[in-house]
Amino acid sequence: MTHRDDPITPGDAPRGASQDAIEALSREDRTFPPPPGFADQANVRDPDVYERAAADPEGYWAKAARSLDWYRPWDTVLSWDPPNARWFDGGQLNVSVNCLDRHVASGHGDKVAYYWEGEPGDRTRITYAELLAEVCRCANALRGLGVGRGDKVAVYMPMILEMPIAMLACTRIGAVHTVVFGGFSAESLRDRINDAGAKLVVTADGGYRRGKPSALKVNVDDAIADGQAPSVERVLVARRTGQDVTMVEGRDIWWDEVVPRQAPECEPERMESEDPLYLLYTSGTTAKPKGIVHTTAGYLLGAAHTHRTVFDIKDDDVYWCAADIGWVTGHSYILYGPLANRTTGVMYEGTPDFPAPDRWWDIVERYRVSVLYTAPTAIRAHMKWGPQHAAGHDLSSLRLLGSVGEPINPEAWVWYHHHIGGDRCPVVDTWWQTETGAIMIAPLPGLTTTKPGSASRPLPGIEADIVDGDGNPVPPGSGGYLVVKGPWPAMLRGIHGDPERFQKTYWDRFPGTYFPGDGARRDEDGDYWLMGRVDDVMNISGHRLSTTEIESALVSHQSVAEAAVVGTPDDLTGEAIAAFVILKLGTEPSVAFGDELRQHVAAKIGPIAKPKTLLFTPDLPKTRSGKIMRRLLRDIAAGRSLGDTTTLADADVVETIRDASRAGRDEE
Ligand code: PRX
User: Fold this and answer.
1) Which of 366, 368, 472, 543 has the most C-beta neighbours closer than 10 Å?
2) Is residue 169 a contact partner of residue 143, using CB atoms and an 8 Å limit?
3) Other C-beta atoms within 10 Å of 398: how many?
4) Cis amide prior to 611 (ω within 30 degrees)
5) What does the alpha-carbon distance between residue 56 and residue 62 come to, in Å, rounded to a whole number?
6) How far apart are the CA of 184 and the centre of ligand 1, in A?
7) Do 190 and 156 contact (CB within 8 A), yes or no?
């Protein structure tokens, strides 16, 4: 196994995009101007907004920031000493006040904040006034459990209302939440708790997944057993499934025994603009996930402003972001953006095809959803199940559709536009990352003529570009590396506890310029076509996973000598995980052992990290300097021709692997 450092190797080609995909994109010439009637009512109508923002980005963001509620206005809009940005220094505010109190104070307490739908079909709704009271109760409970300003709180929960309540409660008292997706294993949870130094964990007994209760608390117990997560003092447990859990005396406490008896008011902390708001771990190109740091004012502004402009949010919209709050999409576009904009949202606990493939369309019809935001992988799944499921429901409430998480293939875009949007809804393909905090590249639906497969162009106030290996902008019609040249309010402020990695990962490749790790092409009109990652990060169903993290999990098995993991194109999930494994002497390759290894990876990282293809091989192709030739492995996994292999230390290896690949590919 080789461990590459975070920055990419110059010359790496954008990967998610196969040659076929690039060619297909070049043939894509359909255009979709803003639909009649949409442009007239859009939140952003003035085409000069791009130029005005480019001429004075600080002025643009300062104007937008006035829509937030401040205890104290800022002294300075921006201090920029690359890579360190400080936005709105001197300003003081509280995120929960911006998301809740001000809406209740302005007479909107009875407005629904969330329609919540559980997977088994149970339903509830919560108004802004009720949400505020619950958040205050939870905040008081957290304070009572010893959590204060600056303390870290891990949140490991299913998609139940207690999850946003706990997160908002943290923001009320200045605690820093770190949400860990409920699909991650006990070990992944432990690593994140320890890296963050979390003092308290909020969890639930379990959650529902495809009709069955799945356990969560037991993973928390495993994660912190035997002093393995020494920072954790208390565990707060919400009841969801009613399954049996072990409660450790003095450490674990039921939510319903402590939260409901608290007062429904709680004095919010006055936070500084640059106080940390949350950490969210994401995969990089080494085995250790990065704790991305977001701070208070800039992040909230970025989430709220983009939510309002890109989704054209109005007061009577019913907005549904069908993501999990465990990922950044849920943070920015289920929680912070929508609540700051006083939006009515839908929150759904389960999977799209349970109990039937029309579950989503039933939800859209019942709540009269007007804006839907999801990932291409979900759209492709719906395409596979067929348009009849959507056709059986009244989707006429929809007026805008969003896409996020991975490049959207034009077929999926057009299907979404036609079968879900009834040819009348603008589709906004939104490019961004955990690190960017908010959408960076996307259409403005009242202004932009969209093209299926293109995320259009950087939003006003965002100074992005596509450059060649030397940092020079590429001409129209060419591909290169996506970069962001100036600071933006919601940008990450660092990697928790690792300033060196922060510098090296994002800022060294093109000095002083943010490098997200994506390849992109610019077309003749200046529109951006995102082409996927150029580093060792994979994108599986819109989820980021590191090849090296999975390699580490594989080699931690006692029978594995070496492993290489690559992403390979997949019609449904965008990319799929392919693993090449060399076994130690004495272990025989078998389908059963392949399954054991997959389970091992699931236990180490989580089920989403299980390789789809697992190939036992006697050797791995390496360069003379000993680096695994991933591109070659990707080609083998994708069944493509191998091209020039002269840089191989031992060309025979290729033949062996290729033969092995032909003979013994073991697919799930
Ligand atoms: O490669 C890009 C891809 O997802 C990566 C970010 O992953 P994550 O931090 O998990 O955030 C996902 C949700 C924001 C990016 O580096 N990506 C995200 N959105 C798009 C995309 N690729 C192409 N088009 C998009 N719209």
Assistant:
1) 543
2) no
3) 21
4) no
5) 10
6) 19
7) no
Candidates 290, 200, 208, 191; CA nearest to 606 is 191
Smallest CA separation from ligand 1 atom 11, residue? 433
Please state the atom number of ligand 1 nearest to the C-alpha of residue 441.
26
Q: Is 44 in the pocket of ligand 1 (CB under 6 A)?
A: no
Closest ligand 1 atom to Cα of 430: 26
To 5 degrees, how large is the angle CA 279–CA 520–CA 280?
A: 5
Over the Cα atoms of the chain, what is R_g? 24
Q: Quick check: pTM over 0.90?
A: yes
Q: Contact 155/179 with Cβ under 8 angstroms? A: yes
Provide the pLDDT confidence category of residue 140 given band limits of 50, 70 and 90.
very high
Mutation test residue for ligand 1: of 285, 294, 518, the one with most atoms within 8 Å of CB: 518
User: Is residue 223 predicted with pLDDT exceeding 90?
Assistant: yes
Q: What's the mean pLDDT when you consider all of the chain?
A: 93
Looking at residue 16, what is its pLDDT?
45
- Tell me, using a 6 A CB cutoff, whether residue 530 lines ligand 1: yes
Strands (E), 344-443: 344-348, 371-374, 400-404, 427-430
- Give the whole-angstrom CA distance, residue 14 versus residue 46: 34
Which token pair is 323?
């993501």
